[in-house]
């Protein structure tokens, strides 16, 4: 990656570095305006961009973070490669194409100019245009490799492939599982526990397609995929896809999906104790990891911690209990924030630092966390206070990528 930086001359690099404080101050305003004018002039991209994240402002925050990180590291872009790869997984799952990058660049530059006004001189805009296309080339190159890898895998594909819902199972008060097999009956590629697929929801009442990413919730190696979806409260556009899946998609329905992607993955080369911590529907990738470990690493010690509102809201409760009872190396703990009965669960209320210290047997372990942002932030802080090594803490945050630490 470092070779790409030679495309930027010293003057351009200095201008980019000098604008970092301005970008940090106005970055979110720029990216909000960017999405507004981009989608006004290219409404077909509403088939790609998550309108829920647009409404919440999450997408613009994520883009601002990425642009700021790139600007701050313009002389050493290799340092943001892990972030680039995270985003590239999302892009490949959404079927983003190289020809879309110039469109994005055009409106990002317009947004910078219109938000900053006279402060965005021609010299600054020219520097940012050069920098944008260097950064875009990095993304395009990384994504090309990912597309080729998916296409060349046994059972692999690019774009969207039609899958049939072969089974629909209600897992809890809010979560339902969908078992998916390819309509063409050809093999499907395997995946790594923790990865996700993208569903293309083509809803009759909606003007545009809705793309949503859902973690695979079972161990790999099957002839089907399984996703487990929480039904969100419907408040357009929030909850459109989850409600569509719960109410309109039945056994026999066809759903176009992308090949598995994502870099929140279980490292099965690691044989140390494994600590899996999830909150709510964050259970889904964690469940895939649990199922996989008991199949492929039967001697690995596992601590499984799940936080839910109550028993009624706890998905796959019986399956996890079955695993914990039959595998003595698996210890299960459940925390209910609003228990039906006072005796429900191993703890009532919330996971906290003192309780975590009691149930985690060793600091020398691999930790995988998934759930809502406040939950993730709290658990991450607790683990850091326990002096857990940062590179042993692996996290998945649903939605656009943004910093998790407070």
Provide the descriptors you would attach to this structure in a database record.
single chain, 406 residues, alpha/beta, Elongation Factor Tu (Ef-tu), domain 3, Rossmann fold, 3 domains, 6-stranded parallel β-sheet, 12 helices, 18% strand
What does this protein look like?
The chain has three domains: 2-152, Globins (Globin-like, Orthogonal Bundle); 161-257, Beta Barrel (Elongation Factor Tu (Ef-tu), domain 3), CATH 2.40.30; 274-397, Nucleotide-binding domain of ferredoxin-NADP reductase (FNR) module (Rossmann fold). 41% of the residues lie in helices and 18% in strands. The protein has helices at residues 10-18, 20-41, 51-56, 58-72, 81-94, 100-116, 122-152, 240-247, 283-296, 317-326, 353-359, 373-385, and strands at 161-170, 175-182, 196-201, 210-215, 225-230, 254-257, 274-279, 302-308, 330-336, 347-348, 366-371, 393-397. The strands form three sheets. It has a six-stranded parallel β-sheet, with helices on both faces. A four-stranded antiparallel β-sheet has the order 5-2-1-6. It has a two-stranded antiparallel sheet with strand order 3-4. Strand 7 (274-279), helix 9 (283-296) and strand 8 (302-308) form a beta-alpha-beta unit. It is globular.
Distance between the termini: 30 Å
**Going across the major beta sheet, what is the strand order?**
10-9-8-7-11-12
The proportion of residues in beta strands is 15-25%
- Give the total of domains: 3
Tell me the helix content.
Answer: 40-55%
Strand-pairing-aware structural class:
alpha/beta
CATH H-level homologous superfamily name of the largest domain = Globins
Compute the number of helices.
12
Q: Say how many strands there are.
A: 12
Give the overall silhouette.
globular
Query: What is the residue-mean pLDDT, rounded to a whole number?
Result: 90
User: Oligomeric form of this entry?
Assistant: single chain
Assign the CATH architecture of the largest domain.
Orthogonal Bundle
What is Rg? 22 Å
What is the string of SSEs from the N terminus onward? HHHHHHHEEEEEHEEHEHEEHEHE
CATH class of the largest domain: Mainly Alpha
